[in-house]
From TrEMBL:
GO terms for biological process: glycerophospholipid biosynthetic process. InterPro entries: CDP-alcohol_PTase-I, CDP-OH_P_trans, CDP-OH_PTrfase_TM_dom, CDP_ALCOHOL_P_TRANSF_CS, Phosphatidylglycerol_P_synth. It comes from Actinocorallia herbida. Keywords: Lipid biosynthesis, Lipid metabolism, Membrane, Phospholipid biosynthesis, Phospholipid metabolism, Transferase, Transmembrane, Transmembrane helix. The chain crosses the membrane at residues 125-144, 156-176. Pfam families: CDP-OH_P_transf (PF01066). This is CDP-diacylglycerol-phosphatidylglycerol phosphatidyltransferase.
Amino acid sequence: MVETRDRIFTVPNALSLARLLGVPLFFWLVLAENDGWAIGLLVLAGLSDWADGKLARALNQTSRLGTLLDPAADRLYILATLVGLTVRGIIPWWLVAGLAAREVYMGLVLVVVKRHGWTGLPVHLVGKAATMCLLYSFPLLLWGDHDGAAATAARVVGWAWALWGTALYWWAAVLYTQQARQLIRALPPRAGAENEGVAPAP
């Protein structure tokens, strides 16, 4: 198998970049209340998020750039959705505050980790699951802002996913804190080199 960690032009990276480029378009669609297109784009973003991880492993195209692009795209979609849905009054400020507080907390954790010479934290399955729960909940909440029985069902399921995703998001923060403690207590990283298998925590 060919080592591709330093490669830039890979299929997974192209998918992550396309997902990033779709963030401003998605944000505009939400604010313009073009909900059908916004939901479709968000669904495509979620599918590409799943696909780029699968392809990276299947094609042996895991790369350092990919470990940066993937969580960056996830965070930007969550941010764009939170701002857009809050402006439209679909979700309350307390949900935004809870997720924002978690991001601030994780930012502080990463600052501490980097001060000890590590580039980041290994991505945890719970953190990835939390992100996917939130990304799946947003199109349902957007759909639930309309009339009809289907919209009502979408709103109920969307809120279930959103609350579960938020709880997992904070649980992942606890797990990342434990990982940070373990890294700091471990042997120091190699001088002048990045740590293998380390990426920003989602």
